[in-house]
Amino acid sequence: MPAVEEHYSRHLAAFYDWLCGGFEAAVERNRGLLRRFVPPAGPGASALDLGAGSGHQSIPLAESGYAVTAVDSCAELLAVLEEKMGDLPIQAVRADILAHLEREAGTFDLILCMGDTLTHLPDQDAAHALLARSARLLKPGGVLLLSFRDYASSTPEGLSRFIPVRADDTRVATCFLEYGTTYVQVHDLLHTRQEDGQWAFSAGVYPKCRLAPEAVRVALAGLGLRDIGMESERGMVFLRAEKA
To answer: Which domain holds residue 179?
Structure first.
């Protein structure tokens, strides 16, 4: 099965922003989301965006006053970020996020790992390593913000494993899920209308880790983080914690 980076580079990156409803719509949606969870930026405030992609979170954070380090392994998505960010205080870094956390020398007022980035990690041990390294890099009083899709609380069967993602006159995207014990194989299926009116088909598959939300909350508490809040919306889990 292809690794996450290969899947994005070969297949998903080309239509990722479209899947999210368009770049501008995704950024606007995250402006509202981040206002709910992120403290106002004080003087010199810094943020580390893990799995930044094309900047759906990085751009709103930079607009609000954070100096953002945006880390992602996908060159194609980072190229979009660099095109869109203009003069905003964003440093785009192409790297594996766990490797970057290991060598990062700075500390941050805010670290976020949003979308489904946490489930892109190979297993639960890797996810716990990300949490531990992030907690170490937070300044006192700093905030760690996570979101990920809950693939652990249930195991859909039959036709419920097919998910219509988005469709318009030129594209139809569908997702098909195969559940294992600790991971889900995600099949991204895309039909694209050609100039002659015919439909071309492309597909890719990659694994996502099944992370139990409560296990992640317990791991955060075990790292000494406080005021841990957890909420869920349409299968997406949001966790916010602070460093003492």
So the answer is: 158-208
